[in-house]
Design a protein that fits this description.
Order of helices and strands: EEEEEEEEEEEEEEEEEE
CATH topology of the largest domain: Porin
Strand content: over 45%
CATH class of the largest domain: Mainly Beta
Distance between the termini: 42 Å
CATH superfamily of the largest domain: monomeric porin ompg
Shape: globular
Helix content: under 10%
CATH architecture of the largest domain: Beta Barrel
Number of strands: 18
């Protein structure tokens, strides 16, 4: 179990800090976090946290002092060494601006997330991962986001193959879904699945020796009901976007 209390004044600035905070930067915030994990036996366990926070001054998209909370509950089940399953519920309540005529009012913005995740390894070199998630966002109106994702990973001697196929449908950007993606060494990919479409990913890793490794990663997003993607210098004509990464690692 862990308990963490914090109080950052509104005029405190530490641009390179990595402190626990609800805001991007640790300032204008007071809160208390409680988290815990309990293992019932080898097969069953659960974990949870509750975070309550308060902002004593104005912040981005909130033009008045506000307060909110967030909690998460996750149940783990591992019937065998090669099979893992968890079910997760998460709720976040953070007030946000809502315009009524020419005046901004503060209204609760509630985001609820439901996740079912399963991992299965029929062979030491082969792994499957299936994830289903739904977000429900409510502030005056309600919008939903749904993600169904399948990952496959296979290792063949010095080669490591990873692929993903994801179907997503989010009515509004507020109901977007974040999901971690496999990436090259030292890179971090956590994109937002928004709008409606299909996401494909394929990555190849080749360990030539203990000192030399190669990575090639290709990802493609295809959207429905879109003729253009992005804007300005990043404008793409069409409804699909491709990303390619190549990396070589040499240890001297």
């Amino acid at each position: 179990m862990a308990v963490f209390m914090r109080k950052y004044s509104r005029d405190f600035y530490a641009f390179y800090s990595n402190a626990i905070a609800e805001n991007t930067l640790p300032n204008n915030e007071t809160g208390i976090y409680w988290g815990g994990k309990y293992q019932l036996n080898k097969k069953y366990g659960f974990s949870a946290y509750f975070d309550m926070f308060q902002f004593d001054w104005l912040k981005y998209r909130v033009y008045a002092p506000s307060r909110g909370h967030e909690w998460l509950w996750r149940f783990h089940f591992a019937p065998a060494k090669t099979t893992k399953l968890y079910v997760q519920f998460r709720t976040q309540n953070k007030p946000r601006n809502e315009k009524e005529g020419k005046v901004y009012q503060i209204a609760p913005a509630i985001l609820r997330s439901y996740v079912v995740n399963a991992e299965y390894s029929p062979h030491p070199r082969l792994k499957f991962r299936t994830r289903c998630q739904q977000n429900v966002f409510r502030q005056t109106t309600t919008s939903q986001g749904t993600l169904v994702m399948q990952d496959i990973s296979y290792q063949l001697k010095k080669f490591q193959f990873t692929c993903r196929l994801a179907l997503f449908d989010a009515e509004r950007f507020d109901a977007r879904i974040y999901a971690y993606e496999p990436d090259v060494l030292s890179a971090f990919s956590w994109p937002a699945y928004s709008d409606s479409g299909l996401r494909q990913l394929l990555m190849l890793e080749y360990r030539c020796s203990k000192k030399i490794s190669f990575w090639v990663r290709w990802a493609r997003s295809q959207f429905r009901n879109k003729d253009q993607i992005g804007s300005g210098g990043e404008l793409i004509e069409g409804n699909s976007k491709n990303d390619i990464k190549m990396q070589t690692f040499i240890r001297f």
